[in-house]
Amino acid sequence: MDSTHARLIACFTAVFRGLAPDQAPHASVDTLLAWDSSHHFMLMQVIEENFAIQIPEEVLGDIDSFAGFEDYLARKGTES
């Protein structure tokens, strides 16, 4: 597992208390009842801090899953 994946798991489990690390890669708006707009905003902030990036607002609305954030980070060439 690369460190980007592991760091993203840590971000998800920090925001969604009770989410097990092995569940995080499967997390999405459709699978987590707790994923509302405030959790989405908190998740974005935690990811931005952890990866030292800024996610544009126009992109953020399109990212609604762990896989979506992982793909975005891969496209941005974030350090692993």
Approximate strand percentage: under 5%
* Count of beta strands: 0
Q: What is the domain tally?
A: 1
CATH architecture: Orthogonal Bundle
Mean pLDDT: 92
The tally of helices reads 4
Cα distance spanning the termini: 10 Å
CATH topology: Non-ribosomal Peptide Synthetase Peptidyl Carrier Protein, Chain A
Unreliable sequence segments: none
Strand count, sense and barrel status of the largest sheet are: none
Q: CATH-wise, what's the superfamily? A: ACP-like
The H/E string reads HHHH
- The secondary-structure class comes to mainly alpha
The helicity comes to 40-55%
Based on CA atoms alone, the radius of gyration comes out at 11 Å
The first-level CATH class is given as: Mainly Alpha
Shape: globular
In short:
By secondary structure, the protein is mostly helical. Helix content is 52%, strand content 0%. The longest helix is centred in the middle third of the chain and has 15 residues, at 37-51.
Structure report:
By secondary structure, this protein is mainly alpha-helical. The chain has a single domain (3-75), classed as ACP-like (Non-ribosomal Peptide Synthetase Peptidyl Carrier Protein, Chain A, Orthogonal Bundle). 52% of the residues lie in helices and 0% in strands. It contains four helices and no strands. The protein is globular, with a radius of gyration of 11 Å. The chain starts with a helix and ends in a 5-residue tail after the last helix.
